[in-house]
Design a protein that fits this description.
Structural class: alpha/beta
Number of strands: 14
Order of helices and strands: EHEHEHEHEHEHEHHHEEHEHHEEHEHE
Helix content: 40-55%
Largest sheet: 7 strands, parallel
Shape: globular
Strand order of the largest sheet: 3-2-1-4-5-6-13
Bound molecules: NADP nicotinamide-adenine-dinucleotide phosphate
Low-confidence stretches: none
Number of helices: 14
Mean pLDDT: 95
Amino acid sequence: MGERDLSVVVFGATGVTGRRVAAYLAERAGEAGAAWAAAGRDAAKLERVLGEVGVTAPETIVADVGDPASLAEMASRTRVVLNLVGPYTLYGEPVIEACIANGAHYVDLTGEMPFVRRMIDAFDDRAKAAGIKVIHTSGFEALPADLAILLAAETARERWGEDLDEVDLEVATQAPAGRLGLADVVSGGTLQGTAEVLGAEGAEESSDPALLIDDPEAAAEVRGRSPISLAPRLNGRGDAIAPMTPAAFINPPVVQRTAALLAAEQGDPVRPFRYREGVAISGSPATLPLRYGAAAALGGSQAAFRALSRTRPAVRNRLADVLRRVLPSSGFGPSGDRLGEWTWQVAVDAHTSGGHYVRVAVDAHGHPGYLATARILGEVGLLLAEDGVTPERAGLLTPAAALGTKHLDRFERAGVRFSLSS
Ligand SMILES: NC(=O)c1ccc[n+]([C@@H]2O[C@H](COP(=O)([O-])OP(=O)(O)OC[C@H]3O[C@@H](n4cnc5c(N)ncnc54)[C@H](OP(=O)(O)O)[C@@H]3O)[C@@H](O)[C@H]2O)c1
């Protein structure tokens, strides 16, 4: 990567999430010594939206997914493009193409897993040859889980020379007091992304925990050892455990890909761990039946999505069309000061092949999907823009394979603290 005048570009800075990534960089880039720019397809809208959220971008760039020359121009000026232009199934590929061709690392927030598989097949070799990192799923899904599990795996290796055998991950969230509506929880961009997954080529594979494993034998082992369960359960501490929300199909293939990529790099066979995750719904003992029922309902809706994703393409496509029309679209989503009032935790309990135990905790503040995610992504951009901070790897990487664990403390700037607690 030669000399460039920008470290990080936020593309899609007018979106519900993009404007918050811009806000994070406006605060942080100066002290990190990074030059950044906000990019979007409409200069006037960029100025208006950023003005509304009190952000002054040092520079704005006009680029449109439908105009490859504008993408090439943007990518050739910067070390890192943070891509917030979704749904990625529709808009992601030309941006990746431009980044690889013009020497910029690429990062996005997609949870559209068939798209991720398609991009690995299309671009992994070229990205490796160009020394470029392409990183999907770099928000709440799936960066905290991926990095926390890598920290547990590295700790087990260092302490006992053992691999992880079983990993349990639990998320707990505390929302601000008061009633929450749909717009407080999820954005139109994310909901439209769900419709695109249903309509996408390969939708039937969207719930495969081994979707991102390249080697067919290793993929079969992952499927056998670690299927994705949507059933509600109890954790023995009085919590009902629901499947990961909004989707149980994102973290599992990512964390299994990280383990497979790192095993392949070491020349080791892939020995997949059994991975189980969920969201803890806590409350008083008297409310347990209600909470268990809620966990079952959340699992039921995801099971319905999985069943629909496996129907014939003609049926799925019709459903996707209906969803595109009825679901909220771009611009809908969490807003306002209360985003800062959310807190959340991730706990990873890992057992090794030799019976040892490691626990990694993540403590965070800020709405997981739309504030913490934006700050995390901003910090990822700053890390990638610095020389010698992230591992030398290139290609279509997971967040953990791309970033490593040496600089986890940097995420404290984004309100996310990783710690090894036993
Ligand atoms: N996994 C996670 O943790 C997580 C969390 C948050 C978001 N996400 C994902 O991030 C993506 C963005 O979400 P969001 O809610 O911020 O979406 P959004 O509000 O709809 O923003 C979409 C952005 O894309 C831009 N855009 C659309 N078409 C474009 C084109 N042809 N050229 C250039 N820009 C274009 C829009 O620009 P205009 O304003 O000009 O229309 C806007 O800036 C979604 O795919 C969502 O699923 C994931």
